[in-house]
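#lab-general

N.A. 3:47 PM
ok so I finally got the sequence cleaned up, no stray characters, all 49 residues accounted for. can someone with queue access submit it? mine expired

B.Y. 3:52 PM
send it over

N.A. 3:53 PM
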Amino acid sequence: MTGRTLRSNSNINQGPPQMKAGLLPVGEHLRCVSEIVAMRDLRSECRNV
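B.Y. 4:20 PM
back already:
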């Protein structure tokens, strides 16, 4: 379920810039994206091990 939620969030973030601005302040948006990327990296590291 978590993975599905993250994926739908990233799809929203890929929309037009004005849509992104309406959803979140830029700093908040970037922080969310970096957290999602970090979580993806951790998951792939676990798989590789």
